[in-house]
Amino acid sequence: xxxxxxxxxxxxxxxxxxxxxxxxxxxxxxxxxxxxxxxxxxxxxxxxxxxxxxxxxxxxxxxxxxxxxxxxxxxxxxxxxxxxxxxxxxxxxxxxxxxxxxxxxxxxxxxxxxxxxxxxxxxxxxxxxxxxxxxxxxxxxxxxxxxxxxxxxxxxxxxxxxxxxxxxxxxxxxxxxxxxxxxxxx
Length: 186
Ligand code: IMP
Hints:
The chain is 21% helix and 33% strand. The chain is an alpha/beta fold.
């Protein structure tokens, strides 16, 4: 049996506690993948992943969706440290048109909602046949704009979290679980 990875094996990383274990994440992502596979059968959806934070979620979600689908990526930046900068910059855009496509926007976390609101507005102008958002995490209490999130993996408290793709100043993404960052680090 595989031993669970403990924070102790990641020396140099300062976390307060584990919020979601590898097992909790794995089983929820499998469920989301199954649901999407069922709802988009015969639609050849396009998963648009917002990098960098969603890369591990996407890798697991795409393998859990057992229907033909495509992937594309956008790199956006809205945070410095733990603070939203309030403006969203597209560092790299999609490589294809989404006109007439069934788009599933894959996000790691919706916090204030500013990034997602911008992304929704931006992508809708490109005339997809449909668009929905699947976010692994939702910090519902932290929302400052009213933005729709069709599917959520987990609703979490308003604390800064790291791991499973999410970073603090570009570190911590490789933790296989989701952890609350030690507030003394911020
Ligand atoms: P929003 O625009 O405030 O909703 O923030 C969305 C983006 O901020 C996410 O896609 C993440 O990249 C980043 N973010 C927000 N909260 C956290 C967090 O707790 N940990 C790591 N990144 C976060």
